[in-house]
């Protein structure tokens, strides 16, 4: 259970062995998969409204390791959300007006590369301040790029 941002989120993880839920013809292409995982989420907002949803995952971990699978799923989304937060807030990606051909996709790739490079530096500056400093100071930029 998580309590954050004015909501309470509960998750129920259920993991099954694929051969328990699939018939032989369905199971054959997935023979190397160890478990099917269902995540049932109930989100209760501060105004009392609720939202339910289900997500499904395929895992190479055994169904008996459902707690560990849940930890990995939650960790993955934490990483994913932090990435998107930086893209949206630091790089203002949502305000990008590039729409033609592959421009938006190419810019997204460049932003992710820049974020990866800047994130490797271990100093006390925030990501935004590192980018700002690199923009103003060519020596700092060279350090980041290891030139």
UniProtKB/TrEMBL annotation:
A single GO BP:
DNA transposition
The GO terms describing molecular function are: DNA binding; transposase activity
Question: Do you know which Pfam families this protein is assigned to?
Answer: DDE_Tnp_1
Q: List residues of the Transposase IS4-like domain.
A: 64-115
Superkingdom to which the source organism belongs: Bacteria
Q: Which NCBIfam families match?
A: transpos_ISAs1 (NF033564)
* Name of the protein described by the UniProt record: Transposase IS4-like domain-containing protein
Query: Organism source for this protein?
Result: Tannerella sp. oral taxon BU063 isolate Cell 1/3
């Amino acid at each position: 259970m998580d309590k954050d941002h004015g909501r309470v989120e509960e998750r129920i993880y259920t993991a099954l062995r694929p051969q328990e839920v699939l018939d032989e013809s369905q199971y054959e292409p997935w023979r190397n998969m160890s478990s099917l995982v269902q995540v049932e989420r109930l989100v209760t907002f501060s105004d009392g409204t609720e939202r339910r949803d289900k997500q499904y995952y395929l895992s190479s971990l055994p169904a008996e390791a459902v707690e560990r699978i849940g930890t990995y799923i939650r960790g993955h989304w934490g990483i994913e959300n932090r990435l998107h937060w930086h893209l949206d807030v630091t790089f203002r990606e949502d305000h990008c007006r590039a729409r033609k051909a592959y421009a938006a996709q190419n810019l997204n790739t460049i932003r992710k590369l820049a974020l990866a490079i800047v994130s490797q530096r271990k100093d006390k500056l925030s990501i935004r301040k590192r980018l700002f400093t690199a923009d103003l100071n060519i020596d700092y930029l060279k350090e980041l790029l290891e030139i």
